[in-house]
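FAQ: What does the model actually see?

It sees only this:
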Amino acid sequence: MKTRVISSIVAIVLLLAVIFSGKLIFDLCVFALALIASHEFIEAGKSGGYKPFKPIIYLSTLFVLLAGIKDMFSGIDLLTNPNFILLFVYIITAAVLAVLVAKYEDFRIQDAGFTLLSIFYVVFMFAFLPLIRNMENGIYLIWIVFIGAWGTDTSAYFAGVSLGKHKMLPKVSPKKSFEGFFGGIIGCFAITVAFGWYLTSRQIVSFSMYHFVILGILNGLFSQLGDWIASAVKRYVDIKDYGKIMPGHGGVLDRFDSILFISPLVFLYLSMIIEVLHNI
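And it is asked to produce this:
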C-alpha cells in the first residue's frame, strides 16, 4: 500500500506539471504514453500466443500526434474531420489485411485481429486526450477525465475493501464487488459534481451544472467498464500486469485502462451532446 501511495503522489505531481506546461508538452507526453502502452499490449498479446505486426502498431501512434495538431489546414482540426477518421480506419485496416496476404504462412487471422485491436483499443483511444486538451478551456476540461477515472477507482477500492461482500465478476476480476461498483459510481459522481461547481461558479465554463451530474454518472459506469475490459484481456493472455513502469500499479495500461475508455465519452459529450441538448 505504501508503494502504491507514493507512486500515486508522484504520478499526480507529474500529471500537474505536464498539463500546465503547455499543449505541446502535453501532446508529446501522451504520444510517449501511447508508444509505451502499445508496446505493453504487444507483449501481452505475445504472452497469449499472438503475433501482432509491430511496425503498423508503432507507426499508428503518430495518429496521437496528429490529434494534437490544431488549425493545421485552414482552421480544420484533423481528428474532428469525419473524412480523416475514415481515411485512418481504411489505411490501417487495409495495411493489416495486406500483411495477412504478404505473410500468409506466419501471420494468422487472429494475429491480424489482435493487431487491429491494439491500434483501436490503445492508439485510437489515447488520441482523445489531446483532442480534449485542444478544446476551449481544455486545460480544465481534461481533468473531468482524470478525476472521473481515478475518483472512481479510489472510491470503488475503499468501498470494496470496507463493504464488499457480493462478488460481481469473479472470473474476470475476483476482487470486484457490487458494493465497490456502486461506491465507485457514487465517488465519481461526487467529485465530478464538486469540480463542476468550481468551474461554473468561477464562470470558467458556460454550460449548466446538470451536465456534470450526467458526466459523473457516465464516467463512474464506463470507467469501471474500461477496468473490467483490461482485466479480461489480462485473463485471456494470462498475465498479472501489463508492465512495471509504476511500482505498485503495473504498467501504463494498468493505470490508463479507465482513462482510455472514458476520454472518448467525455470528448463526444462535450463536443456533441451539450450542443444537442442546448438546441432542444
